[in-house]
Specification:
The protein is built from eight helices and no strands. It is mainly α.
Length: 208
């Protein structure tokens, strides 16, 4: 669906440029955008490598384990249907710890592993379980103490004070996380009070 949306936007842009006789502007913008993307990526590499190394040091020093231990009761409350000693819990804690430090690149593999483990617990393989929905909501709206990626982007564009967004980012992510948790609790309670579906009879033409 996302690919279709992007394709439509590109085609509409080319169509309007052709109608207005400015097709060369679209071509130039495409090349400029590609060049800017490469430049930004190279600018992010050094900062992301630095913070990934810091995270590895924190992991070796036991900091992530302590963060995971502090988050344990919270995760147990948010994921009541996941057994305490299940491997999914470890991946969920690692995902949340990485998100707290703003390391989305490190959090993504842990989130995927957690989803795979939660799928094993899912009785209906065709529908996302409540725990999977909770993880998705928390991963999307995670509290971020250090917005590493945003700081890296601001440094790449020569911001005068790249870290000034730390406070506002923290407040915004706290609000977003609380909203995600409340929405998740509401939908969970709604699902619990929803009457069970009555299966249809196998052959409506048969008379009892």
């Amino acid at each position: 669906m996302i690919n279709l949306i992007w394709l439509l936007m590109i085609l509409i842009g080319f169509a309007f440029a052709a109608i207005n006789g400015n097709i060369e502007v679209v071509t130039q913008a495409a090349f400029d955008g590609a060049a800017t993307g490469v430049t930004v990526c190279f600018g992010l590499i050094s900062v992301l490598v630095f913070w990934m190394g810091m995270m590895k040091m924190a992991e070796d020093a036991g900091l992530l384990a302590r963060i995971a231990k502090l988050l344990g009761p919270v995760v147990g409350f948010l994921f009541p249907d996941v057994p305490k000693n299940h491997p999914a819990m470890g991946y969920i804690l690692s995902n949340m710890s990485a998100n707290l430090l703003g390391l989305g690149n490190a959090a993504t593999p842990m989130g995927i592993k957690a989803m795979q483990q939660l799928q094993e617990l899912n009785p209906d393989k065709q529908t996302a379980s409540p725990a999977m929905c909770t993880l998705l909501a928390l991963n999307t709206a995670s509290i971020t103490i250090i917005p590493t990626t945003l700081i890296a982007i601001r440094l790449n564009y020569h911001s005068a004070n790249a870290t000034e967004i730390v406070g506002t980012t923290l407040m915004a992510t706290i609000v977003a996380t609380l909203a995600a948790i409340m929405a998740d609790r509401w939908y969970r309670n709604r699902a619990l009070h929803k009457p069970p579906r009555i299966p249809k009879s196998g052959n409506p033409g048969m008379k009892g």
